[in-house]
Specification:
The protein is α+β, with helices and mostly antiparallel strands. Helix content is 61%, strand content 11%. The chain has a 5-stranded antiparallel beta sheet with strand order 2-1-5-3-4. Helix 1 packs antiparallel against helix 9 and helix 14 (389-418) runs parallel beside helix 15. The longest helix has 57 residues, at 433-489.
Amino acid sequence: MKNISHALITKVVVFLIAIACLTGTAKVIINMELNEVYLSSINQDNYFESIAFADESYSLISSLAQLIGTYKSEEYILSGKALTKEEMREMEEELYNDFQYSSKYNGNLSEVENRKIYQEAYADDIQSKKEERIREQVRVFYRLLSALDAYDGIVYYASDGEHVFSNSELNKKEQFASFGAYMQFANYQQKLYPNEMKKNKYLDYITQDVEMLNPQTDAIYVAYKESYLEQKMQEWEKNKEVAKSYLNEFILFLVGFIVSFAYLVIVIGRTSFKDKEMHFSVIDKLYNDVNIVIVAGLTGLWVAMIVEVLREMNILLTVPIFIIALLMILSLIKHIKNRSLLQHTVIYQIFKKIFIGIKHVFDNGSTAVKIVLLVIGYPLVAAATFFMFPITLGLAAWFALKKVKSFKRIKEGVEQIKNGDLHHRIDIEGKGEFSQLAANINSITDGLKKSVDSEIKSERLKTELITNVSHDIRTPLTSIITYVDLLKIEKDPELIAEYIDVLDQKSKRLKHLTDDLFEAAKASSGSIPVQLERIDIVALLKQGIGEMGEKIEAASLNFKLAHPTEKVYVKADGKLLWRSIENLFSNIFKYALPASRVYIDVEDIGNELLVTFKNISAYELNISVDELMERFTRGDESRSSQGSGLGLSIAESLIHIQHGKFLVQVDGDLFKAMIYLPKFE
């Protein structure tokens, strides 16, 4: 809990750092925009190369170019000469569009005839529009003249050969060339001084209006006074230092945000770096497409309010908006890491439900329902995709051909199975009705094959059972008959006593075989009563090892028991569990390599306990596990040992009826028996 709380506090702190850095970055950008600070000036060595010089020169040169190129004088504008053909055409087209929707327009007449009607009906409107446009040009003309008066420290002269605009008596380009900095545009030439002006990347931006002038008649000369340049250079140097300061702040805040955001991206959704499970919060339940719309809306709202409305309240607006936006972005990152970005959207869920609904009807409905769906659905699809009708028709033909091929494959498969090929499988892709039918036929085939294999195995086991039982019972029975015959004719008391001892051994052996056979039959049938209770499995094993100490010593075996330090209990029947363990002990005594180790391990594996018996076999285990678990099968194929071959089979059946599992593994000469039993809760 402490680790989780510490991780949560760390995330919150890093989140606040990210918000602070992001807010600081935004504030720097806003301040640079409001104060008109240009970062490009940092890499510029001269004022004449800067965008500040370009901006200051552009408005002057642009105004002069418009005055001599377009407006010239008030009389010129009032005469209508300042109106271009393009402007007149636009005005007339605007009025003609109105005419087309009016009652005066006659659709039965030709375009030429309607144009004639328009010229007569809208003559006053055309003239009114023209006069309004001329008045607007006059206002622009005087606005440009007023703007020229604001240029103190710059000497200019502009002329089209008839109209002159100047703020000094200078009118020769040689006179302007005497200044320390000047621009001249005349006679297809432009002269810029000093040469640093030519390095200005914004030169085209400065001179774009000049290029529209008539180079034969129009001329513009501009010169900068020394005092003006000194003042502007000082301002530029100061702004350059401010730009450097803003840039340092920007980099600092940006790096802080990137580092904190990267950390949040790594740890978001997890309690620690080692935690592989994704944890979701309430905000993550919001659909991702809705999330994206909200983030985009908040971003747009912030930009609009900061730029257009509340510039002075940028911090008050920025912090809450950034907190909400960053939380939602981190929620999207959670879904990206969880690979549920697309699945957790409204659009996906809607289409998924529609698709599942149609698929459910198509997969589980009758053929008649599917035909109705196709009959209704195909025209709708064809109508919705009218321009792609050949494609939809081709898709429909492909779908029909695919279904015909599927039916043909099923038909051929059934024919092969009918002819006795039970290994043949019908493979149909998809999950449609034909695919389900093929799967059902394959299941029937698998059932038939298993049934045939089971019957063959059963017959083999019956034969082996009869053979093994006959062999194991006939051996002591033959000895009994032989010695009974010898007793009938024997007169020597000592031999008679010896024969009786042999008869006693063989009869006990016969009884042992019949008892084991009876117990195996009862265990496999499940008719043995079971009483489940709490059993201390470790104590049971220790008791068993203690009781069999003499046998262990006689076999020269070394038992090693490993178990958990705490008490572990299983839910089992004590008598049946001991009988199973006793059978395994008996199996070890008969088949284990003398003077070897026997390992018994008890492991807690969650809801179950695993008891493993491991020993080295004295005989070569050249039979499979399945054969070893069959009845009357022994570890030695020569059948020279005294076992019945039922021990493992009985143990397996007894463990099974106690709701456990019994498994055997053979690795070379290593024999391993494993018992899984449910824990007692």
